[in-house]
Please model this.
Amino acid sequence: MAKGDTNDYSFGQWVGWSRPENGPEGKIIVNFEKRTPGRAQIFGYSPQNPAFRISTDAVLQESEDTIVIDSPNTRVFDPQSGQLVPVAEFFAAHKITQPIGKKTTYKMAERGRVTAGSWETDLGERGGFRLENTTYDPPLKPDYTFDWKQFKEFVVANYLDREFVLFRGQPDNTYKLRTSFHRSHRNNLIRYLYEDVPRLRHSVNAVSRFYYENNNAEHLGALLSLAQHHGYPTPLLDWTSSPYIAAYFAFTESVSKEQPPPAARIFVFDMENWWSAPSVNLMHEPIPNITFLRFDPHNNPRFIPQQSIASLSNVDDIETHVRAVEKESNRRHLTIIDIPFSEKGTLLKELRLMGITHGALFPGLDGVCRSLKEQYFTT
Model:
Protein backbone atom coordinates (compact mmCIF):
# COMPACT_ATOMS: atom_id res chain seq x y z
CA MET A 1 0.00 0.00 0.00
CA ALA A 2 3.02 2.29 -0.23
CA LYS A 3 5.25 3.49 -3.03
CA GLY A 4 8.69 5.06 -3.08
CA ASP A 5 9.74 3.90 0.37
CA THR A 6 12.82 1.96 1.44
CA ASN A 7 10.60 -0.40 3.44
CA ASP A 8 7.98 -2.39 1.59
CA TYR A 9 4.88 -1.31 3.47
CA SER A 10 2.74 -3.26 1.02
CA PHE A 11 3.11 -6.19 3.42
CA GLY A 12 2.67 -6.62 7.13
CA GLN A 13 -0.05 -5.74 9.57
CA TRP A 14 -1.92 -2.43 9.38
CA VAL A 15 -3.88 -1.17 12.38
CA GLY A 16 -6.16 1.85 12.50
CA TRP A 17 -9.71 3.14 12.23
CA SER A 18 -12.51 3.64 9.75
CA ARG A 19 -15.14 6.31 10.32
CA PRO A 20 -18.40 6.57 8.31
CA GLU A 21 -19.90 9.99 7.63
CA ASN A 22 -22.88 9.20 9.82
CA GLY A 23 -21.84 6.71 12.45
CA PRO A 24 -19.33 5.74 15.14
CA GLU A 25 -15.70 5.02 14.45
CA GLY A 26 -14.71 1.39 13.95
CA LYS A 27 -11.33 -0.25 14.41
CA ILE A 28 -9.77 -2.16 11.51
CA ILE A 29 -6.79 -4.46 11.04
CA VAL A 30 -5.50 -5.39 7.60
CA ASN A 31 -3.08 -8.31 7.14
CA PHE A 32 -1.01 -8.60 3.95
CA GLU A 33 1.26 -11.60 3.36
CA LYS A 34 4.06 -11.66 0.80
CA ARG A 35 2.99 -15.08 -0.45
CA THR A 36 -0.45 -13.78 -1.51
CA PRO A 37 -0.03 -10.42 -3.28
CA GLY A 38 -3.31 -8.79 -4.21
CA ARG A 39 -5.16 -10.40 -1.32
CA ALA A 40 -5.73 -9.31 2.25
CA GLN A 41 -7.40 -10.38 5.47
CA ILE A 42 -9.44 -7.56 7.00
CA PHE A 43 -10.81 -7.45 10.52
CA GLY A 44 -13.28 -4.88 11.79
CA TYR A 45 -14.93 -4.21 15.12
CA SER A 46 -16.66 -1.39 16.94
CA PRO A 47 -15.58 -0.29 20.43
CA GLN A 48 -19.24 0.76 21.01
CA ASN A 49 -20.44 -2.76 20.12
CA PRO A 50 -17.45 -5.08 20.69
CA ALA A 51 -19.60 -8.20 20.43
CA PHE A 52 -19.91 -7.62 16.66
CA ARG A 53 -16.58 -8.44 15.00
CA ILE A 54 -16.12 -9.29 11.35
CA SER A 55 -13.45 -10.96 9.23
CA THR A 56 -13.17 -10.59 5.47
CA ASP A 57 -10.98 -12.30 2.88
CA ALA A 58 -10.51 -9.55 0.32
CA VAL A 59 -9.25 -9.25 -3.26
CA LEU A 60 -7.56 -5.96 -4.14
CA GLN A 61 -7.42 -4.12 -7.46
CA GLU A 62 -4.99 -1.19 -7.35
CA SER A 63 -4.74 1.72 -9.77
CA GLU A 64 -2.59 4.75 -8.91
CA ASP A 65 -4.03 6.09 -5.64
CA THR A 66 -7.21 4.02 -5.74
CA ILE A 67 -7.73 0.53 -4.33
CA VAL A 68 -10.93 -1.41 -4.88
CA ILE A 69 -11.51 -4.15 -2.32
CA ASP A 70 -13.88 -6.96 -3.23
CA SER A 71 -14.94 -8.80 -0.08
CA PRO A 72 -17.63 -11.39 -0.85
CA ASN A 73 -16.52 -13.71 1.96
CA THR A 74 -17.38 -11.86 5.17
CA ARG A 75 -17.74 -13.74 8.43
CA VAL A 76 -18.71 -12.78 11.97
CA PHE A 77 -16.97 -13.89 15.15
CA ASP A 78 -19.29 -15.90 17.39
CA PRO A 79 -18.09 -15.46 21.01
CA GLN A 80 -20.01 -18.54 22.19
CA SER A 81 -18.32 -21.00 19.85
CA GLY A 82 -15.13 -19.03 19.26
CA GLN A 83 -15.63 -19.58 15.53
CA LEU A 84 -16.21 -17.38 12.49
CA VAL A 85 -19.60 -17.93 10.85
CA PRO A 86 -20.87 -16.57 7.51
CA VAL A 87 -22.41 -13.14 7.92
CA ALA A 88 -25.71 -14.21 6.30
CA GLU A 89 -26.02 -17.09 8.78
CA PHE A 90 -25.21 -14.81 11.72
CA PHE A 91 -27.69 -12.12 10.62
CA ALA A 92 -30.45 -14.67 10.11
CA ALA A 93 -29.88 -16.16 13.58
CA HIS A 94 -30.05 -12.72 15.19
CA LYS A 95 -32.80 -11.33 12.92
CA ILE A 96 -30.56 -8.56 11.55
CA THR A 97 -31.71 -7.05 8.26
CA GLN A 98 -28.94 -4.48 7.72
CA PRO A 99 -27.15 -5.03 4.38
CA ILE A 100 -23.36 -5.24 4.16
CA GLY A 101 -21.47 -3.91 1.16
CA LYS A 102 -19.31 -6.31 -0.80
CA LYS A 103 -17.12 -3.80 -2.62
CA THR A 104 -15.33 -0.73 -1.25
CA THR A 105 -13.29 1.87 -3.13
CA TYR A 106 -10.48 3.53 -1.19
CA LYS A 107 -8.91 6.83 -2.25
CA MET A 108 -5.45 7.37 -0.75
CA ALA A 109 -4.55 10.90 0.29
CA GLU A 110 -1.48 9.73 2.21
CA ARG A 111 0.70 6.68 1.58
CA GLY A 112 3.67 5.16 3.35
CA ARG A 113 4.07 3.96 6.90
CA VAL A 114 0.73 5.70 7.42
CA THR A 115 -1.99 5.31 4.79
CA ALA A 116 -5.09 7.47 5.01
CA GLY A 117 -7.92 8.74 2.85
CA SER A 118 -11.59 8.21 2.06
CA TRP A 119 -13.78 5.27 1.09
CA GLU A 120 -17.14 4.49 -0.49
CA THR A 121 -19.04 1.18 -0.61
CA ASP A 122 -21.24 -0.23 -3.33
CA LEU A 123 -24.18 0.69 -1.08
CA GLY A 124 -23.29 4.38 -1.26
CA GLU A 125 -21.86 4.61 2.26
CA ARG A 126 -18.89 6.98 2.64
CA GLY A 127 -16.27 7.73 5.21
CA GLY A 128 -12.59 8.13 6.03
CA PHE A 129 -9.84 5.87 7.32
CA ARG A 130 -6.33 5.86 8.70
CA LEU A 131 -4.01 2.85 8.94
CA GLU A 132 -0.53 2.54 10.39
CA ASN A 133 2.05 -0.17 9.66
CA THR A 134 4.63 -0.43 12.46
CA THR A 135 6.13 -3.71 11.19
CA TYR A 136 9.40 -2.04 10.23
CA ASP A 137 9.69 0.24 13.26
CA PRO A 138 12.77 -0.36 15.42
CA PRO A 139 12.40 -2.06 18.81
CA LEU A 140 11.60 0.05 21.83
CA LYS A 141 14.44 1.53 23.82
CA PRO A 142 15.17 -0.17 27.15
CA ASP A 143 13.67 1.12 30.35
CA TYR A 144 16.89 0.13 32.12
CA THR A 145 20.42 -0.97 31.24
CA PHE A 146 21.92 -3.02 34.06
CA ASP A 147 25.02 -5.06 34.69
CA TRP A 148 24.40 -8.52 36.13
CA LYS A 149 24.70 -7.39 39.76
CA GLN A 150 22.25 -4.51 39.20
CA PHE A 151 19.81 -6.83 37.43
CA LYS A 152 19.73 -9.24 40.38
CA GLU A 153 19.20 -6.38 42.81
CA PHE A 154 16.38 -4.98 40.65
CA VAL A 155 14.65 -8.37 40.52
CA VAL A 156 14.78 -8.82 44.29
CA ALA A 157 13.57 -5.27 44.94
CA ASN A 158 10.66 -5.40 42.49
CA TYR A 159 9.55 -8.97 41.82
CA LEU A 160 10.37 -11.10 44.86
CA ASP A 161 6.76 -11.37 46.05
CA ARG A 162 4.99 -10.78 42.72
CA GLU A 163 2.85 -13.68 41.48
CA PHE A 164 1.74 -12.46 38.07
CA VAL A 165 5.08 -11.48 36.53
CA LEU A 166 6.74 -13.26 33.62
CA PHE A 167 10.16 -12.96 32.01
CA ARG A 168 11.53 -13.55 28.52
CA GLY A 169 15.16 -13.41 27.42
CA GLN A 170 16.27 -12.58 23.88
CA PRO A 171 19.92 -12.63 22.76
CA ASP A 172 19.80 -9.44 20.70
CA ASN A 173 18.42 -6.10 21.85
CA THR A 174 17.88 -5.07 18.22
CA TYR A 175 15.17 -7.76 17.81
CA LYS A 176 11.57 -6.79 18.44
CA LEU A 177 9.23 -8.85 20.57
CA ARG A 178 7.64 -10.92 17.79
CA THR A 179 6.48 -14.51 17.38
CA SER A 180 8.27 -16.88 15.02
CA PHE A 181 5.06 -16.98 12.98
CA HIS A 182 5.12 -13.22 12.39
CA ARG A 183 8.89 -13.19 11.83
CA SER A 184 8.32 -15.55 8.89
CA HIS A 185 6.31 -12.78 7.13
CA ARG A 186 3.00 -14.36 7.98
CA ASN A 187 0.03 -12.78 9.77
CA ASN A 188 -3.10 -14.62 8.59
CA LEU A 189 -3.73 -16.84 11.60
CA ILE A 190 -7.00 -18.22 10.28
CA ARG A 191 -5.29 -19.57 7.19
CA TYR A 192 -2.52 -20.90 9.44
CA LEU A 193 -5.13 -22.65 11.59
CA TYR A 194 -6.88 -24.35 8.68
CA GLU A 195 -3.91 -25.08 6.40
CA ASP A 196 -0.69 -25.32 8.40
CA VAL A 197 -1.92 -26.78 11.69
CA PRO A 198 -3.59 -29.86 10.11
CA ARG A 199 -0.32 -30.69 8.33
CA LEU A 200 1.57 -30.22 11.58
CA ARG A 201 -0.90 -32.37 13.54
CA HIS A 202 -0.75 -35.16 10.95
CA SER A 203 3.06 -35.25 10.95
CA VAL A 204 3.44 -35.03 14.73
CA ASN A 205 0.83 -37.75 15.32
CA ALA A 206 2.86 -40.02 13.05
CA VAL A 207 5.80 -39.93 15.47
CA SER A 208 4.13 -39.05 18.77
CA ARG A 209 3.10 -41.34 21.61
CA PHE A 210 0.26 -38.90 22.34
CA TYR A 211 -2.48 -38.42 19.75
CA TYR A 212 -3.46 -34.79 19.17
CA GLU A 213 -7.14 -34.65 18.27
CA ASN A 214 -8.73 -32.30 15.79
CA ASN A 215 -11.25 -29.71 17.07
CA ASN A 216 -9.85 -29.94 20.60
CA ALA A 217 -8.67 -26.59 21.96
CA GLU A 218 -6.53 -28.14 24.72
CA HIS A 219 -4.81 -30.47 22.25
CA LEU A 220 -4.25 -27.60 19.81
CA GLY A 221 -2.55 -25.52 22.49
CA ALA A 222 -0.37 -28.44 23.57
CA LEU A 223 0.54 -29.20 19.94
CA LEU A 224 1.59 -25.62 19.24
CA SER A 225 3.57 -25.44 22.47
CA LEU A 226 5.42 -28.65 21.59
CA ALA A 227 6.09 -27.47 18.04
CA GLN A 228 7.32 -24.10 19.34
CA HIS A 229 9.90 -25.83 21.52
CA HIS A 230 11.17 -27.75 18.48
CA GLY A 231 11.59 -24.82 16.12
CA TYR A 232 8.28 -24.80 14.23
CA PRO A 233 6.88 -21.29 13.57
CA THR A 234 3.91 -20.56 15.82
CA PRO A 235 2.07 -17.46 17.09
CA LEU A 236 3.42 -18.27 20.56
CA LEU A 237 6.16 -16.67 22.62
CA ASP A 238 7.78 -18.62 25.45
CA TRP A 239 7.97 -16.93 28.84
CA THR A 240 9.14 -18.15 32.22
CA SER A 241 8.32 -17.31 35.81
CA SER A 242 12.07 -17.23 36.57
CA PRO A 243 14.11 -14.11 35.72
CA TYR A 244 17.26 -16.21 35.90
CA ILE A 245 16.05 -18.76 33.36
CA ALA A 246 15.16 -15.82 31.11
CA ALA A 247 18.69 -14.46 31.57
CA TYR A 248 20.15 -17.86 30.69
CA PHE A 249 18.27 -17.96 27.38
CA ALA A 250 19.20 -14.36 26.65
CA PHE A 251 22.90 -15.23 26.83
CA THR A 252 22.95 -18.73 25.33
CA GLU A 253 20.56 -18.53 22.37
CA SER A 254 22.37 -18.06 19.05
CA VAL A 255 22.34 -14.76 17.18
CA SER A 256 22.48 -14.49 13.38
CA LYS A 257 25.35 -11.99 13.36
CA GLU A 258 29.12 -12.39 13.05
CA GLN A 259 29.64 -10.04 15.99
CA PRO A 260 27.43 -10.30 19.08
CA PRO A 261 25.06 -7.38 19.66
CA PRO A 262 25.99 -4.88 22.39
CA ALA A 263 23.40 -6.27 24.80
CA ALA A 264 20.94 -9.05 25.45
CA ARG A 265 17.40 -8.10 26.42
CA ILE A 266 15.06 -9.22 29.19
CA PHE A 267 11.34 -8.51 28.82
CA VAL A 268 9.29 -8.39 32.01
CA PHE A 269 5.52 -8.66 31.69
CA ASP A 270 3.16 -7.81 34.53
CA MET A 271 0.03 -9.87 33.84
CA GLU A 272 -2.03 -8.35 36.64
CA ASN A 273 -5.20 -6.78 35.16
CA TRP A 274 -4.15 -7.82 31.67
CA TRP A 275 -7.13 -9.23 29.76
CA SER A 276 -6.67 -12.74 28.42
CA ALA A 277 -8.78 -14.91 26.16
CA PRO A 278 -9.84 -18.26 27.66
CA SER A 279 -8.27 -20.46 24.96
CA VAL A 280 -6.47 -20.68 21.64
CA ASN A 281 -9.70 -19.51 19.96
CA LEU A 282 -7.91 -16.16 19.96
CA MET A 283 -6.71 -17.21 16.50
CA HIS A 284 -10.25 -16.54 15.26
CA GLU A 285 -10.52 -13.35 17.30
CA PRO A 286 -10.61 -10.13 15.21
CA ILE A 287 -9.63 -7.84 18.11
CA PRO A 288 -5.84 -7.44 18.52
CA ASN A 289 -4.71 -9.19 21.66
CA ILE A 290 -1.95 -11.02 23.48
CA THR A 291 -3.11 -13.68 25.90
CA PHE A 292 -1.19 -15.93 28.30
CA LEU A 293 -1.98 -19.63 28.45
CA ARG A 294 -0.67 -22.74 30.18
CA PHE A 295 -0.77 -25.78 27.94
CA ASP A 296 -0.73 -29.47 28.82
CA PRO A 297 2.92 -30.62 28.49
CA HIS A 298 2.23 -33.71 26.36
CA ASN A 299 5.54 -35.03 24.94
CA ASN A 300 7.22 -31.86 26.22
CA PRO A 301 9.67 -32.64 29.08
CA ARG A 302 11.13 -29.10 28.78
CA PHE A 303 7.91 -27.46 29.93
CA ILE A 304 8.26 -27.88 33.70
CA PRO A 305 12.03 -27.29 34.21
CA GLN A 306 11.79 -24.10 32.15
CA GLN A 307 8.84 -22.92 34.31
CA SER A 308 7.18 -22.18 31.02
CA ILE A 309 4.08 -20.24 30.07
CA ALA A 310 3.23 -19.08 26.57
CA SER A 311 1.68 -15.97 25.12
CA LEU A 312 -0.49 -16.33 22.04
CA SER A 313 -0.61 -13.26 19.84
CA ASN A 314 -2.55 -12.20 16.76
CA VAL A 315 -0.51 -8.97 16.88
CA ASP A 316 2.66 -8.55 14.83
CA ASP A 317 4.12 -5.54 16.66
CA ILE A 318 3.56 -6.63 20.25
CA GLU A 319 5.61 -3.82 21.78
CA THR A 320 3.60 -1.06 20.11
CA HIS A 321 0.32 -2.79 20.97
CA VAL A 322 1.23 -3.13 24.66
CA ARG A 323 2.31 0.49 24.89
CA ALA A 324 -1.03 1.55 23.36
CA VAL A 325 -2.95 -0.53 25.91
CA GLU A 326 -0.83 0.92 28.71
CA LYS A 327 -1.62 4.44 27.54
CA GLU A 328 -5.37 3.75 27.60
CA SER A 329 -5.34 2.01 30.99
CA ASN A 330 -2.66 4.19 32.59
CA ARG A 331 -0.99 1.02 33.88
CA ARG A 332 2.46 -0.34 33.03
CA HIS A 333 2.71 -3.97 31.90
CA LEU A 334 5.94 -4.29 29.90
CA THR A 335 9.40 -3.44 31.25
CA ILE A 336 12.47 -3.79 29.03
CA ILE A 337 15.93 -4.41 30.48
CA ASP A 338 19.23 -4.60 28.57
CA ILE A 339 22.29 -6.39 29.95
CA PRO A 340 25.62 -5.83 28.13
CA PHE A 341 27.15 -8.94 26.56
CA SER A 342 30.35 -8.24 28.48
CA GLU A 343 28.50 -9.70 31.51
CA LYS A 344 28.09 -13.12 29.87
CA GLY A 345 30.98 -14.95 31.56
CA THR A 346 30.09 -13.99 35.12
CA LEU A 347 26.37 -14.40 34.51
CA LEU A 348 26.61 -17.96 33.16
CA LYS A 349 28.96 -19.06 35.94
CA GLU A 350 26.54 -17.85 38.60
CA LEU A 351 23.58 -19.44 36.82
CA ARG A 352 25.46 -22.73 36.72
CA LEU A 353 25.82 -22.53 40.52
CA MET A 354 22.03 -22.03 40.68
CA GLY A 355 21.56 -25.25 38.70
CA ILE A 356 20.42 -23.40 35.57
CA THR A 357 22.17 -25.23 32.73
CA HIS A 358 21.19 -26.60 29.37
CA GLY A 359 21.11 -30.08 30.85
CA ALA A 360 18.61 -28.99 33.50
CA LEU A 361 16.38 -27.05 31.11
CA PHE A 362 16.55 -29.54 28.21
CA PRO A 363 16.31 -33.06 29.69
CA GLY A 364 18.06 -35.64 27.52
CA LEU A 365 21.35 -36.21 25.71
CA ASP A 366 21.25 -32.91 23.80
CA GLY A 367 20.98 -30.95 27.03
CA VAL A 368 23.78 -32.88 28.74
CA CYS A 369 26.20 -32.36 25.84
CA ARG A 370 25.30 -28.69 25.49
CA SER A 371 25.91 -28.14 29.21
CA LEU A 372 29.35 -29.75 29.06
CA LYS A 373 30.21 -27.71 25.97
CA GLU A 374 29.23 -24.46 27.65
CA GLN A 375 31.22 -25.30 30.78
CA TYR A 376 34.46 -26.57 29.21
CA PHE A 377 34.64 -25.37 25.62
CA THR A 378 33.38 -21.78 25.78
CA THR A 379 36.11 -19.21 25.34
